[in-house]
Amino acid sequence: MKVTINSWRGVATWRWVANDDNCGICRMPFDASCPDCKIPGDDCPLVWGQCSHCFHIHCIMKWLNSQQTSLLCPMCRQEWKFKE
Amino acid sequence: MDNLSNSSTNSSTLEKWLEYNFPILINKIKPDVQNDDMEATEENFKMLSLSFCLQSLVIPKIEKYMRIIIAPKFWSKFVNVSEIDEKQGFQNFTTSVNELYTDSSKLLPMLKKLELAGSCKDEYCMYSQVNILDYFKLIIRGTLLSQIPLYHTTIIEHFYKTAFNVFCNIEASSTTEDLHNNSTILCEGCKQEQSNCQCQIIVDVFHETNKKLIQLGLLERLVGSILTSLIHIRIESHVHRVCNRTFDSSQLEPLECWLETVVMNWLIRIYSGGSSRSMSLDYKVRNAINTFKQKLSYFLYETYTRERIDQLFNIVIEYPDSRAAVDDLRICLERTDLRKYLIRTLQEALKTRLLHPGVSTPDILTAYIAAIKALRQLDPTGMLLETITEPIKVYLRRREDTVRCVVSGLLDESSTSDLADELARGGESIQLDVDGGASPQEDKEDWENWQPDPVDADPTEFMSTTRGRRRVSDIISMLVNVYGSQDLFVNEYRTLLADRLLSQLNYQTDREIRHLELLKRRFGEHQLHHCEVMIKDIYDSKRIDGNVQLDKKYNSEKANFSTSALILSAQFWPPFKEEWKLELPVYVQEQLDKYVKAFEALKGNRTLCWKPHLGNVNLDIETRDRKLNLNISPIHATLILHFQDKNEWNLDELSELMHVPTTVLRRKIGYWVSQALLVETSRDTFSLQEEIATNNSRNIQTTIVTDMIDDEEVESAMASASDQREEELQVFWSYIVGMLTNLDSMPLDRIHQMLKMFASQGSGAVECGLPELRLFLDNKVRQHQLLFSSGLYKLPKP
């Protein structure tokens, strides 16, 4: 008997490669969108800080905008800098 | 006789004269000899009545005569009814009436003379102020009825039944000629051979008899009730016959027409003694007939309504075709008082014919939809619908697959699905019972057309009736409201959608998008947001896959088969069934890993987790005598790929290699056995079959297995709704464990209260009812994670 595979269509789920499951600000899973978004993934991406913490981009932007003086990571209180 | 007036008249002359003129006084009907001299004149009577009351002399004698001679003679024909057949009965009655008539007419000359004498002058005499003839009729009636034998009705029935049969037959034959042709030997009317049909004679005799009865004033009293019951029976049998036909034509008009022509004509003939024209009747009789007609008409309606109500279940099932019958029923209900009967009967019919385990859920749903449509036509206020379909709702709530059936009905593309049509037609968004009262605005707009609820409306339902009226307009809302919650339906739809999206071979989503848009109009955007993301996942997968295929690294090391993927957002899909993780053949897994690499390169910081048991594989199989091209699931593909390396496998070996339980494997391997590629050589050992066996018995077995496989293949890839729910409830488990560690043991309602206080707060909190919690806890008890004794739950001692 000879079996030839013509095509293999698999099913997969995607996830962010992050050191946590949930966004520290909105407490939603990273793989879901932030509360303001409807579509996860490209439309609601994650960003990493230099302190290695990551958040939904919309969440951290909202946080940073609300800060009066210096911009700190909400998790470790270090100065927030986007990881390049 | 001039000397009569003289005071010197001797008593013997007077006596002779009285005896001559009123022979009844000496118990005779006629004087022995005719003597004109003795004939009384008006003058004489006037003189006489001045001095004494003739009536009180004569009438008691007549009464006695009636009592002793005439009445017993009349009734003598009415005994031994059990031995008398219909024909005999007819004759007996005729003779009796004839004799009564002749006997009574013999008394007439005397009565006339009494009449001449004028009424009694003594105002205390009971015969003053009476009309002698009327009084005579009264005597006849009174005497006859006072001696009425027990079973007299039988004879009278015989008489009228015979006559009515003949009459109906004449009526029928005058309208439908062909009925009477040589096909029947016996005449339908008189049950005689056609050649000596007695119909005409019977009719003549009948009318003659009726005329006599009318003259005697006996018709109403003697035969009225029998006539009524006879006609009632007639109406019943006629209505029954009419109702046996299909429901697609209205029967009211023909029935009224029948009543008017056949029954009323007959009645008029009876009352008029032969002529069929009502013109010749006097006012009083016409009135009587009219009253009679009204009663009969009501009876006709009532009979018809009852008959239709008894058939109502069938009418409902056949609904769009039985529209005419429903219309009839609606008109009838307005005229009769049978709503309660209707509700009871239909509910009973539903219970015995629909709501039992033998009926499949789709059938119940079809019937329910038909009932909604039919009852809506029957009663536009929706009151009947609400009351009658309550048991259906209760029953559907108990069925596990109701939601699934409704949802698949909604998505059914074939033209037979009522629900899909209804969905496509669109409509207002679903209003739930819990949404609060109807807006006062709406009530005000329509206040001029306000109608009170029907009298039989349940007052406790009063609050919901305004909304009830609105809900009636929409079948889908009614079905969704069976559960009082949209969540179940949305979840079920999500599961169904997931299966459909995963099972399709290309990235086609047009149809699903269309359905989703239709559903969104009903359930609202928010509820279906997850589904939207799911469809978008499929759509995006196509694009991502396109990009991955262009990846240089991926292409350079490409295997000899193409790979693609559906990439899902796990958070938005219903949970997958994942009791085991399938181990794919190494070279396939390598290829998939390469795909992941390409994806990671494309989308930074993201990776893929394969669901190895899901997907679709297209492969060619070539054996010595066959060539197959198949689209199968990964697990089937993995199985057959292993057989390529080695011809014979034991299930346990395979299980170890593929990381799949043997029970599952045995089911899956059945597919290849049905394809006649594998044979079970010994228990749990399968080997490859290069050539198809020509043994017939095996072929038969094969087809059976195929059927079995087909059943199995529709199994859902998603966890069932109840599993999902259980997963949700797990949230509570940590709370419960915490509670019980601190407080040792607690009753159910305490636990429920605590959970309500601590666990179910904030948005997105899981709601959990008391019964559901009990089920959950009992489940934990069964798993030995909890102890339950004397109403208290506690944790087992470690």
UniProtKB/TrEMBL annotation, chain A:
Signal peptide: none annotated. Pathway: Protein modification; protein ubiquitination. InterPro entries: RING-box_E3_Ubiquitin_Ligase (IPR051031), RING-H2_APC11 (IPR024991), Znf_RING (IPR001841), Znf_RING/FYVE/PHD (IPR013083). GO terms for molecular function: cullin family protein binding; ubiquitin protein ligase activity; zinc ion binding. The mammalian APC/C is composed at least of 14 distinct subunits ANAPC1, ANAPC2, CDC27/APC3, ANAPC4, ANAPC5, CDC16/APC6, ANAPC7, CDC23/APC8, ANAPC10, ANAPC11, CDC26/APC12, ANAPC13, ANAPC15 and ANAPC16 that assemble into a complex of at least 19 chains with a combined molecular mass of around 1.2 MDa; APC/C interacts with FZR1 and FBXO5. Interacts with the cullin domain of ANAPC2. Interacts with UBE2D2. Together with the cullin protein ANAPC2, constitutes the catalytic component of the anaphase promoting complex/cyclosome (APC/C), a cell cycle-regulated E3 ubiquitin ligase that controls progression through mitosis and the G1 phase of the cell cycle. The APC/C complex acts by mediating ubiquitination and subsequent degradation of target proteins: it mainly mediates the formation of 'Lys-11'-linked polyubiquitin chains and, to a lower extent, the formation of 'Lys-48'- and 'Lys-63'-linked polyubiquitin chains. This is Anaphase-promoting complex subunit 11. It comes from Ceratosolen solmsi marchali. The gene is LOC105367388.
UniProtKB/TrEMBL annotation, chain B:
Belongs to the cullin family. One of its GO terms (cellular component) is anaphase-promoting complex. Keywords: Cell cycle, Cell division, Mitosis, Ubl conjugation pathway. GO terms for biological process: cell division; metaphase/anaphase transition of mitotic cell cycle; protein K11-linked ubiquitination; ubiquitin-dependent protein catabolic process. It comes from Ceratosolen solmsi marchali. PANTHER family: ANAPHASE-PROMOTING COMPLEX SUBUNIT 2. Residues 430-464 are annotated as: Disordered. The keyword Acyltransferase does not apply. This is Anaphase-promoting complex subunit 2. Pfam families: ANAPC2, Cullin_AB, TPR_ANAPC2. One of its GO terms (molecular function) is ubiquitin protein ligase binding. InterPro entries: ANAPC2 (IPR044554), ANAPC2_C (IPR014786), Cullin-like_AB (IPR059120), Cullin_homology (IPR016158), Cullin_homology_sf (IPR036317), TPR_ANAPC2 (IPR057975), WH-like_DNA-bd_sf (IPR036388), WH_DNA-bd_sf (IPR036390). SMART domains: APC2, CULLIN. The keyword Ribosomal protein does not apply. Residues 476-673 form the Cullin family profile domain.
